[in-house]
Amino acid sequence: MISRLLMLAISVIIALILINMAVAQETPNGEIIPNEDSLTVLFNGNGIISLEGLCFEGNQPHAILLEEYDTFENINFNAIPLPICFRLERDGENGTIPQGCQNVLVHSLNDNDVFWVDRNDRAVIAFTLGICAASQPTPPPIQVTPLVICGAGQNSCSFNYPQPIPSHTPTTIPSPTVTYTDIPTSTLSATITPIATLTLTFTPTITSTFLPTPQPTITVQPSPTPIGSICIADIYITTPSIIMRDGPALTASTLDGGVLNAGTNVEVLAEDGNWSRIRRNEGLEGWIETQFLRCLIEPTAIPQCETPVLGVVIANTTEELILRAQPESDAEAVHLLPPRTTVDVLGQSEDGLWLYIQEEIYPRTHQCIKGWGLAEYFTTSS
């Protein structure tokens, strides 16, 4: 009798633990915010969820997995920390990030890949957010299980995402083993007490391998040690622009006014792993991935700017213009001048074919890069 009660009590305890774990799992709420130039998908809540297989279906010929976009290809979609926003933007558009997006990941699309708007009148059309099959047949289409169908003209669509999936492999819970010895009838001695007043005083020891509700893993990033200016660099990218963030991670918030166009000159202040802290000419500081920087010259090697002698001109080119150490075509290259850059003229070669110019690249200390450029590539600044 006692053994059966013990087994019943253990079963009740296990059931209560399982119920508590199920209740602790919180289903995050989601929202889609589309307009003619951007599409933002917001996942609210706390914890870690799996977004593997999340995909869109719109005016493109087949469904597109979110993880197939280049910007997101190195992200572990099986373990995404909440809250998180994924944002698709039309090339060249840098609209306002929705207020609820604390952590946002941005990917730029060309006009032909913008699937949520009509290509003629740029009005929002109906599209689907859903879960695609883990393995895709070739060629598409693939099967999509819809989470929400956002109707034409809607500027916000809410949805409930399925139960979060822990980022770990659940541990198999063995059933508690209870060992007891039958007491021979001939030696059994017990006092019969009415069930209504039966008091059990045993305290079973249960070793449980249940895991608590998974929480986001917090990795403490070592503070980067500022080592002064590392170099003066330009933004070296194949897309029109990238955006600065307030920390060395893709999940860090983007900075207002932090858009950097290709060829922009910046000051590199510090490095932290694959990220660099930079400062723009007007003073805004933030983080971008180091792979998008191309160091041009050490700050200590940059001379002071001089007063212009012959005036101000503009580099009338569509590509970077090479400045050289001497007014000769085979002289050492000292700088790549971005297109349409305004520069000061300090002198001219005797044959008039070359201009000696300077570009202010370090405004805080009024330092300029100087070199010789072919005069035919410059026009007078109006």
Describe this protein with a few key phrases.
single chain; 382 residues; mainly beta; SH3 type barrels; five-stranded mixed β-sheet; five-stranded antiparallel β-sheet; 35% strand; elongated
Structure in words:
- With 382 residues, the chain is mainly beta.
- The protein folds into 3 domains: 29-160, no CATH class; 231-301, SH3 Domains (SH3 type barrels); 311-380, SH3 type barrels.
- 6% of the residues lie in helices and 35% in strands.
- It has one helix at residues 2-24, and strands at residues 29-34, 38-43, 48-49, 54-57, 64-65, 80-81, 84-90, 104-109, 127-132, 144-150, 157-160, 231-235, 241-245, 254-261, 265-272, 275-279, 285-289, 293-297, 311-315, 321-324, 333-337, 342-348, 354-362, 367-374, 378-380.
- The strands form 7 sheets. Strands 8-7-2-1-11 form a 5-stranded mixed sheet, with no helix packed on it.
- It starts with a helix and ends with a strand.
Our count of helices gives 1
Strand content: 35-45%
Shape: elongated
Order of helices and strands: HEEEEEEEEEEEEEEEEEEEEEEEEE
Topology:
Elements: H1 2-24, E1 29-34, E2 38-43, E3 48-49, E4 54-57, E5 64-65, E6 80-81, E7 84-90, E8 104-109, E9 127-132, E10 144-150, E11 157-160, E12 231-235, E13 241-245, E14 254-261, E15 265-272, E16 275-279, E17 285-289, E18 293-297, E19 311-315, E20 321-324, E21 333-337, E22 342-348, E23 354-362, E24 367-374, E25 378-380
Parallel strand pairs: 7-8
Antiparallel strand pairs: 1-2, 1-11, 2-7, 3-6, 4-5, 4-9, 9-10, 12-15, 12-18, 13-14, 15-16, 16-17, 19-22, 19-25, 20-21, 22-23, 23-24
